[in-house]
Design brief:
Elements lengths: L4 H17 L19 H15 L6 H4 L7 H15 L6
Helix pairs in contact: 1-2, 1-4
């Protein structure tokens, strides 16, 4: 099933935040382990705060406790997209 423009836009924005937060110029493969990128709990907090800034929403604090579930870049992308889809309000007023 083809993704809508909104879904592509959200994915592109998530990817841009990840690239900036992880200081990567090249595309980041979904199967790349976050640990291999040096992402620890503080790094994850930085990524989540950057997502909040980009989308103008508060990310659920539960995502920090789910860090063990986010082993790869793909896991992080999927969880962020789901959280943003559930809570995205179109930006802060």
């Amino acid at each position: 099933m083809a993704r809508s423009h909104h879904e592509r836009s959200m994915t592109d924005r998530i990817d841009r935040v990840l690239a900036n937060s992880l200081r990567r110029d090249e595309p980041i493969a979904d199967d790349l382990a976050l640990a291999d990128l040096g992402v620890d709990s503080l790094g994850m907090l930085s990524v989540l705060m950057s997502l909040e800034d980009e989308f103008g929403v508060l990310m659920p604090v539960e995502l920090l406790s789910e860090t063990g579930c986010m082993r790869t870049v793909g896991d992080l992308r999927a969880i962020a997209a789901e959280a943003l889809s559930d809570d995205h309000s179109g930006g802060r007023p």
